[in-house]
Amino acid sequence: MTTVTDTHEDHHDHGPAKGLMRWVTTTNHKDIGTLYLIFSLIMFMVGGAMAMIIRLELFQPGLQFVDPGFFNQMTTVHALVMIFGAVMPAFVGLANWMLPIMVGGPDMALPRMNNWSFWILPFAFAMLLGTFFMDGGAPAGGWTMYPPLVLQGGNGFPFMIFAIHMMGISSVMGAINVIVTILNMRAPGMTLMKMPLFVWTWFITAYLLIAVMPVLAGAVTMLLTDRFFDTTFFNAAGGGDPVLFQHIFWFFGHPEVYILILPAFGIVSQIIPTFARKPLFGYSSMVYATSSIAFLSFIVWAHHMFTVGMPLQGELFFMYATMLIAVPTGVKVFNWISTMWKGSMTFETPMLFSIGFVIMFTIGGFSGLMLAIAPADFQYHDTYFVVAHFHYVLVTGAIYAIMASVYYWIPKWTGHMYNEKMGQWHFWISTVSVNVLFFPQHFLGLAGMPRRIPDYSVQFAEFNMWSSIGSFVFGLSQVFFCYIVYKTIKGGEKATDQVWEGAEGLEWTLPSPPPYHSFTQAPEIK
Amino acid sequence: MSSENAYYIPHDAKWPIVGSIGLTLLLGGFANQLNGSTSASNVMIVGFLILVYMMFGWFGEVIDESESGTYKKVEGVSFRMGMVWFIFSEVMFFAAFFGALFYIRIFSLPWLGGEGSGASTNEFLWGGYENVWPSNGPGEVGGEYEKMGAWGLPAINTLLLLTSGVTCTWAHWGLVANKRKQLIWGLVATVVLGFVFVGLQALEYSHGYNELNLTLGSGVYGSTFYMLTGFHGFHVTVGAIMLTVMLFRSIKGHFTPENHFAFEAAAWYWHFVDVVWLGLFIFVYWL
Ligand code: HEM
Ligand SMILES: [Cu+2]
Fold first, then answer.
1. Looking at the CA of A87, which ligand is closest?
2. Is A338 helix (H, G, I), strand (E, B) or coil?
3. Catalytic residue list contains A467
4. For all residues of chain A together, what is the average pLDDT?
5. Are A287 and A200 in contact (CB under 8 A)?
6. Is residue B64 part of a domain?
7. Taking CB atoms and an 8 Å limit, are A240 and B14 in contact across chains?
8. What residue ranges do the domains of chain A occupy?
9. Number of structural domains, chain B?
């Protein structure tokens, strides 16, 4: 990397352009990061609204508010919006904002392509959400899109397929940009093993993205041709197999869940040392654990298919391989706790969300281990136990880490401190309500309540009511979060450059907010 | 602070949004078409033309920047890494279809034929079905068909593509040694071989559809055959177009022995397409 950066010779003002076109044509990593984050927040609210409808219908047994078809559309699109619209773009937004700064570079390596990776997304989601207004409504066969059910959808079906193709293109371009930025834009002296963990985890996430998004594209392309072009990939009469789709899908799907969690690991590994005022315990073991998780994630996919009728050797292999993942995951949890051990800790909002992450993500990991036991999964599969599992790892895992990162870095982004009292309220209301929301679902699942069903037997009534009450409170507290963010952007106490007393890393050497072009002069790395 | 060795950061990227609009029209139009709309193909065409316009504009801008010496070594490294990872993503796209092929041949057909736990499926659902390859399944979907032989056109195509890989490398040597003639003639040969390949494949498809009754709807054999060779053929076409652009640029005097990222990218892409073909020849045509 060279040491100095500049832009067009004929473009000396270095500030952003004015008006709407600034956002449409920007190549600036901070602008694009902001776009991603705002987009993700909007999608979080859209997906959240769908979750509210689901929980409203499930408040009591019987059908009260929506018809079953629409209910299935809600579960399907809720999942797609949250995964591809809320969590992934939030992480890419954070990567855009922070990676160039954290490695001491001037910007992302491929700025024009960076713009395109974002600007495909609004179009893709317009296409996906547009299906609600079509004949037959939105896709309703579940986000996993299993054939033959999904092939029986209405006019929305091909739109869903193409929307997924577009999201895939966007993700792959974004991931290429991340990898190239990390490999080629580091300041002199920023060796790989000096990179902050957020950079490391994103590096590996990007690799996973490039490896599996095209596989998803292939899978949904085969769905499309099976429905419209007479192919029989997933039709036994022609020699195919519906289970083949599940294999291909989960070969994407399991690495995908690590795409959703590895950047979260990185965030928490940045925040805990800051508020424990100690360096991260076991930095290199964190790097190796992340890499082994990424490797293992490619050979465990069929734990989603234990009940589908695989040969016994398959069941055993995927069971043991899955359990193996608990080892590197355990290393990580151990390291976070050891970092806090004997630290001089304070509990500002980012730290609260991070500690919440460590505890509740671990609960999700434990239920994952229970699901990994093939014979036991015959009981749990497709019940609310699975729903509880993945919401612990995704909501109190991925989303909590994103919340933590917003509180952690928003003073840097905006130059304003958020309101600490409100942040604490947000954390506590969310944490109480999210457990009221998801913990009872474990019991529902163990008792046999199936997932993706709008009505249920009366024996499940009480836990469902609690779960719904928890969900309404949790939903409202996220609206409160939007308000906190809005207020912080508008104003607030001035943030210092360092922001947090114990914070270390290049981002804290820049002013808050940082100048439009970050490191015009490559920083010195000690 | 001099801008001599600064990393170049472009401004005002207006092409991405054009690309998004084009892509949306193309795919949205296609989806409508699939749903039975009769006017949607016009939307598709407009979308496609917008995409082509976007590529001319976007690549044109980058070529101008490259030729005016805006890029230095470090930007070149970014471009090269980007291309390598892009090709990796393409490899994984093909892996999905190869995976489907292997799964069908190793698992699903034998199970349908009664192997392993498939005994009762075979007995009660598909009585008498025997696992063979190629197969259009126990339901004999698509009716009688013939297998596409390996040693006619496909073997010739293998030869063509392998030769084009050699000529492409030869052109590259010419470029590095600053022998423009070798560069240009090498590219001409590569492009011609590439397009002849695509032409022969079209011939083969027409043979399959008209004489062998082998279609996309001929069970899993037809599905995997046309999807794998079809996506490959599409990639060959794209690669040949890329190389054609390189040819015109070479004739215009673009590229120097030090600075020729676009050529390298196209050449790598070409070799990638080549390797995929070898996989196809072995697993789709031959074995
Ligand atoms: C210790 C690590 C983990 C283990 C052992 C594990 C295990 C499992 C198993 C066996 C299932 C299938 C259950 C069934 O359908 O019967 C499952 C489902 C799921 N897991 Fe995990 N998991 C782990 C971590 C994670 C993480 C980190 C995430 C995401 C951030 C995640 C997200 C999901 C999702 C979304 C599903 C449900 C997919 C669906 O059917 O819709 N898991 N997990
Ligand atoms: Cu999994």
1. 1
2. helix
3. no
4. 94
5. yes
6. no
7. no
8. 26-509
9. 2
CB atoms under 10 Å from CB of B51, counted, come to 18
With a cut of 70, say whether residue A255 has pLDDT above it: yes
Indicate the pTM of the whole model. 0.95
Tokens representing B232? 């490959």
Tokens 């395109």, residue located: A116
Closest CA to A150 of A80, A67, A45, A54: A80
The reply to whether B49 and B98 lie within a common domain is no
The Cα–Cα gap between A368 and A388 comes to 10
pLDDT tens string B206-228: 999 999 999 999 999 999 999 99
Q: Could you tell me if residue B2 is inside a domain?
A: no
What chain B residue is nearest to A233 in terms of C-alpha separation?
Answer: B220
Give yes or no for residue A20 having a pLDDT over 90: no
Confidence at residue A7, expressed as pLDDT on a 0 to 100 scale: 41
Identify the DSSP state of A396: I
| Predicted pLDDT of residue B5 | 58
User: C-alpha angle A451/A89/A337, rounded to 5°?
Assistant: 75
Q: Are residues B49 and B164 in the same domain?
A: no
What average pLDDT does range A187-202 have in this prediction?
Answer: 95
| B225, B150: one domain | yes
User: Over 60: is that where the pLDDT of A11 sits?
Assistant: no
For testing the chain A interface, which of B3, B7, B124 should be mutated: the one with the most A CBs within 10 Å? B7
A22, closest residue in chain B (CA to CA): B12
CATH of the domain at B245: 1.20.120.80
Q: What is the pLDDT of residue A518?
A: 81
Cα(B236)–Cα(B243) distance, rounded to whole angstroms?
Answer: 10
Main-chain phi, psi angles of A416, to 5 degrees: -120, 145
**Options 3.40.50.1100, 2.30.30.100, 1.20.210.10, 3.40.50.300; CATH of A26-509:** 1.20.210.10
List of residues 6+ apart from A344 with CB closer than 8 A: A276, A277
Place of tokens 């390996």: B150
Q: How far is CA A82 from CA A34, A38, A398, B128, in A?
A: 18, 14, 11, 47
Residues with CB under 6 A from ligand 1: A 144, 257, 260-261, 303-304, 322, 325-326, 329, 365, 368-369, 371-372, 377, 380-381, 386, 389-390, 393-394, 397-398
pLDDT above 80: residue A126: yes
Which atom belonging to ligand 1 lies closest to the Cα atom of A387? 37
Three-class secondary structure of residue A1 per DSSP: coil
Instruction: Say yes or no: B36 and B90 in one domain.
Output: no
Residue B95 neighbours by CB distance under 10 Å:
18
The sign one gets for the Cα dihedral B109, B110, B113, B116 is negative
* Band of residue A18 on the pLDDT scale cut at 50, 70, 90: confident
User: Does any domain span residue B277?
Assistant: yes
Domain containing B84 equals: 75-286
B23 and A6 within 8 Å at the Cβ level: the answer is: no
SS3 label, residue A188: coil
- Note whether B210 and B275 are same-domain residues: yes
Given a cut of 70, whether residue A4 has pLDDT beyond it is no
Which tokens is B184 given?
A: 């240009």
User: To test the ligand 1 pocket, which listed residue (A390, A396, A400) has its Cβ within 8 A of the most ligand atoms?
Assistant: A390
Q: What is the mean pLDDT of residues B252-274?
A: 95
CA A282, A284, A285, A287 torsion-angle sign: positive
pLDDT in tens, B41-77: 999 999 999 999 999 999 999 999 998 888 888 899 9
